[in-house]
Specification:
Layout lengths: L1 H5 L19 H13 L1 E5 H15 L3 E5 L14 H5 L4 E3 L4 H13 L3 E5 L10 H8 L2 H4 L9 E7 L14 H4 L6 E3 L4 H13 L4 E6 L7 E5 L11 E3 L17 E5 L3 H14 L4 E5 L2 E3 L3 H11 L2 E8 L4 H13 L8 E5 L9 H4 L3 H12 L2
Parallel strand pairs: 2-3, 2-4, 4-5, 5-7, 6-7, 10-11, 10-13, 13-14
Antiparallel strand pairs: 1-8, 6-12, 9-11
Amino acid sequence: MGLRRFGRLVKWVGGNGRRPFSTSSSSSCDEMMVQQIASGKSLNLYSAINQALHIALETDPRAYVFGEDVSFGGVFRCTTGLADRFGKQRVFNTPLCEQGIVGFGIGLAAMGNRAVAEIQFADYIFPAFDQIVNEAAKFRYRSGNQFNCGGLTIRSPYGAVGHGGHYHSQSPEAFFCHAPGIKVVIPRSPRQAKGLLLSCIRDPNPVVFFEPKWLYRLSVEEVPEHDYMLPLSEAEEFILENWNCGTQIIREGNDITLVGWGAQLSIMEHACKDAEKEGISCELIDLQTLLPWDKDTVEASVRKTGRLLISHEAPVTGGFGAEISASIVERCFLRLEAPVARVCGLDTPFPLVFEPFYMPNKNKILDAIKSTVNY
């Protein structure tokens, strides 16, 4: 199972910026996988993020972590132990003022530092919206590249959690995908979260990094303990069973392309398994980076399958799935065998007791797969 889970990480980049997998032979590839797994240990998602923050602070004396309650670990314990190890001058609490947190981070990053700002819940990122969209995103552009705040990373838990209601369950990623000048990244697993977060912190652009709170403790896998990064703006394409060393696809699907990100990927994986039992071959793509997103990978897949389904937790109207749909229709119109399908949240505030009806679950996705394939 460890090897099987490890195979899902297709576009892997080590600390030296190179993929560690050889394309020569399956035996040498298996050897490398065993070595990588042996050097890691089983972690859940919040522990992997904590490990990434430890590495970021340890490897760069200019790095700082700050936000509401971060000095004692934060609500989800992602910053546990950081203040004790690196001191309260580098890991510290802020006032309950999201606009101030991001504004301070912009100034800190503009002085050449690595500022990792935590917004306690993505639902409360909106008071900082002006700072992110009008300041951070435009900082480099307005000066003609004379100055920038590229060292700013804004971390925030997003999405459903099972009991969060309308103020602790939202998925606001589409708002920020409308702002050129920032990157928007969403991991789906512990190994991916660690590698992507380190890439974001070291990226020369400001990044909004949304963490799926539903998976903080639920998602567990083998995570290498060393320092490594995963490439931004490249999708990860996979289906569940087999992995061929040196390829970008774990198992090819021929009937329909599925695209998602974050916590929704685990739901889509189960739908793919059930669709396979009915003879439908699904290709599943995790975008990882939403801004800028990997259009080429999605386009190549849709040109092969002729069908596309997008799923996300955010409301369907104006969700990022609409941008993917429009772009792929423009690029692949003559290759599409059916209308692009979207399985998303409803156009209502996020409900509490009615959360199971709101969420795009496995059965909704499976029905949309069959409807699209049989169109």
